[in-house]
Amino acid sequence: MTTQYQDRGGVVVITLDNPPVNGLSHRTRTGILDAMVRALDDDGVNAVVIAGTGNAFSGGADIREFGTPMAFQEPTLQTVIDTIEASPKPVVAAIHSVAMGGGLELALGCHYRVAAKDALIALPEVKLGLLPGAGGTQRLPRAIGLEAALNMIVSGKTTTAGALAHTRLFDQVVEDGVLEAAEKYARNVAHSPSAHPRLRDLAVQHESAEAYLGYAGATIAATGNLPAPLKCVEAVAASLRPFDQGLLAERDAFQYLMSTPESRALRHAFFAERAASKVPDVPFDTLARKIAKVAVIGGGLMGRGIGMSFLNAGLPVTLLETTADALARGLEAIRRSYEDTAKKGKLSQDQIAERMSLLTATLSYDDIKGADLVIEAVFEDMSAKEAVFRKLDEMMRPGAILASNTSTLDVDTIASFTKRPHDVVGMHFFSPANVMKLLEVVRGKKTGRDVLATVTALAKRIGKTAVVSGVCDGFIGNRMIEQYSRQAGFLLDEGALPEQVDRAVERFGFAMGPFRMIDMAGNDIAWAIRKRRAVENPAFNYSKVGDLLCEMGRFGQKTGKGWYDYKPGDRKAYPSKEVNDMIVRHSEDLGIARRRISDEEIVERLVYALVNEGALIVEEGIASKASDIDTVYLNGYGFPRFRGGPMHYADEVGLYNVARSIRKYARGYQGQAWQLAPLLKKLADLGQGFND
Ligand code: 3HC
């Protein structure tokens, strides 16, 4: 049973009981409807309260049903809401915590709503490429006004019941004791002589609705051409029409959006991110270690950002440096960063004081030896890591987790510097670490399962999305980006220019093309990696054009010139004649007749390079599932969310088609860089996808 029925002497409480978030699955919808019919048939029942168990009133429709016939199977949520709304006996929603999506729509269909002040309220369907499909676009404008409703629906943002207490959305907002308050409310209105209010009977109020909606539609159209936000505007506009007409418009739009690739991708991303922290051989009930105190070694850019991530979540941090100067610089930079945030109005002085009070600075390992977790963020050099880990092994209390923020080095080697390799793990944060959501958790051969459980749970606590990666060069993200960058270089050799490559990829939806990205990160860093590669593997081929660029001293934004020219105080990238001439000359030197390369080929070669390497990574077990790779790329590399990540995108294109293109590119320039991954080939032959 996913609903409970309890008669409390004239008032029936129907409780949603479908963990984890009381999703409105077919079974739950049927349960509510049956309970409503029972309450309506019982002459001893005068009123109904609908409540939820656990941590949510309801998180909305059961997203797992989307894309299956169950999603539209009767009783639909609309049918349930119609029954509630038409009930002659009053129905009161008791919202003690989360009411989102269909959960809020269910409440909007009730006659009265009682909520806890801090209950979280949202219609977040747009984030899944959808719109509220059970009357939300029609009832919310009637409850809180057209403009406020449109903002909530188009942004999908969460607010609190307290913030909306003054609107018709809530009849009563309480500090606590919601269920008792709702029951009392129900008893009070049970014998009300007048009909119980229905939001559908209200008119939408707005002085210049047409002009406002026109403006909103144009603004949204200008910021991108994703279908859902535009459909949200259209559906909210339909709330100005008679209620049932508006409802039909909403339903049509909902059904249309459900089958868009954008919605499939966003739904995939939702589940991929939640699945990422689940590691197949780490049972969900693995006991995590307690983390109350954190130490960070190294007050450089990474160390500071890592420290701030914990401070922001209210965890005490001790920052360790080798010199007083470096320590002072680190502390000053953290304070400055908080002050900058405060200037943007996103942090109060009290909050800054609170965070800084959690921060301790030290030059001595004695002051960190009691920490539960220590994260090393020193220079990326094995001998530097060795010194730190030998010291940590000597100093830290037994059971402390010893983490390295290395982005390139072998975590097993680092673990071997200690007598407790099971306590050692990689925590690869992305820069700026206090902002970027991705955390690659690098699992060494001996890393303890409880260490993984602890670190993935901790990631959620500090607002990061953790993905577990095995040990390999570059882990998941950087190993793949190397193949992507390699193709970008080959494209220049053959006929493209940086601005064309970047434009094509940005039109595809990437936040930034490869050349603008590397100009930000620093071309010298990639240069050093290529040099290392060439020594390790002399057969490793790549375009030399990036090396030529570095020989010209063009390291990127930090030197004012890279693939592009930059002007002081301006981050805009201006195409560079000097660079473009160099690229053309380089092709001539190679004897290549430059050709016109289509944007489609550019996107395919860059994205399929990610996909092919991703397939190898899954096959080798470095990632435990393809969706983890999508999570890495969505959260750390600016891959467009509405495309769901490289592996999901490949599934959408069809792996047969991806494999066919890869075979074609393998016959072209530098074709040896394309070795079709066996897993990709196998799935393509079977007609399956990575995420099947
Ligand atoms: N359907 C199915 N499963 C859901 C779900 C939903 N609506 N919402 C959350 N879950 C699942 C998650 O997948 C996760 O499952 P797992 O434990 O197996 O990984 C579990 O619930 C817990 O989720 P979170 O880790 O996100 O838990 P939090 O406590 O951090 O957050 C939440 C809870 C705020 C409810 C958050 O889960 C959330 O934002 N959920 C999505 C809400 C949403 O988008 N609702 C709209 C659905 S579409 C709709 O309602 C259409 C309607 O208009 C017709």
UniProtKB/TrEMBL annotation:
Residue ranges annotated as transmembrane are none
Protein name (record): 3-hydroxyacyl-CoA dehydrogenase
Q: Where in the cell is it found?
A: Peroxisome
Report the pathway entry: Lipid metabolism; fatty acid beta-oxidation
UniProt keywords, alphabetically: Fatty acid metabolism, Isomerase, Lipid degradation, Lipid metabolism, Lyase, Multifunctional enzyme, NAD, Oxidoreductase, Peroxisome
What GO molecular functions are on record for this protein? (3S)-3-hydroxyacyl-CoA dehydrogenase (NAD+) activity; enoyl-CoA hydratase activity; isomerase activity; NAD+ binding
Q: Which PANTHER family match?
A: 3-HYDROXYACYL-COA DEHYDROGENASE-RELATED, 3-HYDROXYACYL-COA DEHYROGENASE
Q: Name one GO biological process term.
A: fatty acid beta-oxidation
Pfam families per UniProt: 3HCDH (PF00725), 3HCDH_N (PF02737), ECH_1 (PF00378)
User: Where is the 3-hydroxyacyl-CoA dehydrogenase C-terminal domain positioned along the sequence?
Assistant: 474-566, 602-687
